[in-house]
Design brief:
The complex is a heterotrimer of chains A (330), B (279) and C (305).
Chain A (H helix, E strand, L loop, with lengths): L3 E10 L2 E11 L4 E5 L6 H9 L6 E6 L2 E2 L10 E4 L11 H11 L4 H14 L15 H14 L4 E5 L7 H18 L2 E6 L2 H7 L2 E6 L2 E6 L1 H6 L4 H6 L6 E4 L9 E4 L4 E17 L3 E8 L3 E8 L9 E6 L5 E3 L5 E2 L1
Parallel strand pairs in A: 3-8, 3-9, 6-7, 7-8
Antiparallel strand pairs in A: 1-2, 1-4, 4-5, 9-10, 11-12, 12-17, 13-14, 13-16, 14-15, 17-18
Helix pairs in contact in A: 2-3, 2-4, 3-4
Chain B lengths: L3 H33 L3 H6 L13 H9 L2 H32 L5 H13 L6 H10 L6 H25 L3 H9 L4 H12 L1 H17 L2 H6 L8 H11 L4 H34 L2
Chain C lengths: L8 H28 L2 E4 L2 E4 L3 H8 L1 H36 L7 H13 L2 H12 L5 H8 L13 H16 L1 H12 L3 H9 L4 H28 L4 H7 L12 H10 E2 L2 E2 L2 H26 L9
Helix pairs in contact in C: 1-13, 2-3, 3-7, 3-8, 3-10, 4-8, 5-11, 8-10, 10-13, 12-13
Classes of the chains: A alpha+beta (330), B mainly alpha (279), C mainly alpha (305).
Chain lengths: 330, 279, 305
Amino acid sequence: MGALTLTQVTKSFGATQVIKGVDLAVEDGEFCVFVGPSGCGKSTLLRMIAGLEDVTSGDVAIDGARVNDLAPARREIAMVFQSYALYPHLTVRDNMGLALKQAGTPRAQIEAATGKAAEMLALDHLLERRPAELSGGQRQRVAIGRAIVRRPKLFLFDEPLSNLDAALRVQTRIEIARLHRELGATMIYVTHDQVEAMTLADKIVVLRGGVVEQVGRPMDLYNDPDNTFVAGFIGSPQMNFLDAGKLGLNSDRLGIRPEHLTPGGGQISGRVSHVEKLGGETLVYLSSEDHGLLTVRLFGERDYAVDEVVGLGFEPNRAFHFDAQGRRLR
Amino acid sequence: MSQARHSTARSLAAHAVLILYTAIALFPVFVVVINSFKNRRAIFADPLAVPGPESFDLVGYRTVLAQGDFVLYFQNSLIVTVASLFFVLLFGAMAAFALSEYRFRGNMLMGLYLALGIMIPIRLGTVAILQMMVASGLVNTLTALVLVYTAQGLPLAVFILSEFMRGVSDDLKNAGRIDGLSEYTIFFRLVLPLVRPAMATVAVFTMIPIWNDLWFPLILAPSEATKTVTLGSQVFIGQFVTNWNAVLAALSLAILPVLVLYLIFSRQLIRGITAGAVK
Amino acid sequence: MAQRKAFRWHIAVFLAPAVLVYTAIMIVPLFGTLNLSLFNTGEGGRVFVGLRNFATLFGDPRWSASFWNALGNNAWFFLVHMLVQNPVGVALAALLSSPRLRGAAFYRTAIFIPTILSFVIVGFVWKLILSPIWGIAPGMLDAVGLKSLFAPWLGREGTALTTLALISVWQFVGIPMMLIYAALLSIPDEVIEAAEMDGVTGWSQFWKIKLPLILPSIGIISILTFVGNFNAFDLIYVTQGALAGPNFSTDILGTFLYRTFFGFQLQIGDPHMGATIATAMFGIILLGVGFYLFAIQRRLRRYQF
């Protein structure tokens, strides 16, 4: 019902190329998340899929059909915007029904579709209100409802949670995951938050500087990153990068996640500079002469004093080797 | 948008309409200015031709400069406009600050009272204004005009500026108070610099009608010594109706200074308007 | 606080200059004018005559004919602005705000130029262009084969008023254009993009999305046009003189007030009847503004984006 293929897609604004040849296949029903730091091109890529930006070269295909020159409305897609972009002069009902009305759908059918979407999103009692009379979370649900009503082949989300507060963000994240299961639709989701990416995605696309760094399932990226950028971007707190030469290894850098560094070993030593106790876990920050700042993640409450010297060990099979260019050595 | 072909056709159509309308807007000004540099025969023989070596003639300008005291008129207009503008901006900003910053009894009513003047034109009070000016001996002085224009400009200035001042961060003002600044210092040092874009908008909206007004100069200050450019050119043209060279030259002289000022400030003006000052 | 707050002098200081000037020069004279309309010159100077001036204005056929003529002309003047100036302004703004239009700044600047010119300039310039003596207008019509359409429009009773109204439209179209342009720019891009996604494009996008969102601006422009038009004077005085010829066919309330107050030719000026006319104009503007505020503005929603 909604597979997406990008073939050597590029985008230039004047002389600057912001998307530098992206190849990607998203399968029908998949939840695909574009993630990357700001300015990496993820939103531009999404807008190109939507048809809001021209494709400079390459092809965008939905269900095998090339859509480069199709107007957004004719691509059978729906988009949820960061600012929700609700029509301020229309009620919730009309906001959700406008696209169908414009397409000439019979009134009864529009009613049924909006009714069903409203029910899924618990918006039934708000149908006659206007956007100004809704809270942020409700507006967000209306924006999602507007997308659902159209039964699109493809749902596009552009950082939809970034305007919500932390509690609502988690709640809406779970809601979106539920919708994905219930609708079984293909969804493309842009975010800069790797937690959203990890929790929602079937497939994560990590972008940097207009180039795809790695594509894979969340746990594949976590456990098997291709390079230092992906290794550092996925996972929180960030992976530690150690000087491999100082450890007598022949790679350039050694990546070890904070939870895989264990106190008590002898190979690495550092001085405690700060301790964060989160209840369930304790984060210990150490400064090491050889490796710079290191983070250690320990379960439960642990007591460390600032300036205490701690020795650290690690399991060699949990460490990643990288060359001088940051590429993974396998 | 993605439909490349459609949008080219559409933008061509948009350009065609806009160029046509721009021509309509500029054509009269263009015709007057080019003909003011031609001799009498050329003006009538081919009004749309630009002045060439044969038709070029400054006789109109010579007549105007010899007959009318345009330098004085220009000076009068400048004094009246600048002085009114100064008072409108100063008094308007002060009142706007009081209305937007402090809660006091009658705040709402005072705001409404001052806003009344946006809807009710000051001209309706002309009869009584004239009597008042006669009684106070201000007839045929520039002061009379400055007073009237200040009163005329205040309502809109207070309205726009108070909208803007509501947007100035409270934290900033409170930080000033904690640092021991007086309310006056807060107004002049902290708030005024922040609403400068709004002041520019108000300045333009206040200035255009003052510079171009014919009614009050005609009624309150028609003497030779206090004529403004607008009144001066009206009277001059009335007297020289059949001397086309002189009329065209006088019109060009009246257009050019405003045009030059406008072109200098147009970016500011448009930025001011589109900043959402007037919605 | 236990103690009563001290009087906050600074509020008074901030408010005083504006309130004093505004009250003294604007409000007091306005009421002075209203008051003056209740008096007339009789034996031994000014006498109170109550509403008798109004009875003269509306009852005496010499006065009432002029008044209704001016009012009717003024209404037509306003109607032409509403039907031509505002739609043209909206259309130009819509074109200007179309995405990625090259040269938008140039068009904006150029189209606004007539607005900054004074009535004196505008009036005379058009008088010259439309003049049969100079022959620019007939010459241009001739060039497109329509010479037969030319007439001395400003000199004919049937066409003079409409011609003047159109000149005024030409001059002021920049104001609705700018205000609508600003309103259109304030619609967030994402809302327009959402409309694109929903298949609402081109004209239907304008009618269904943009127009409802700029209605409050159109309302404000309409009321500003109303106040401006019922207060107009300069353009007609400049082109047709205080007599608003031919045969009073371009007489509007402003010129009627001026003639009555200052007199013309054989009639001497009459401040009391002048004040009476000003009061009537005050009433008309108040009615119009009141109608707008209570009947129209309440139904216009303003949207926050």
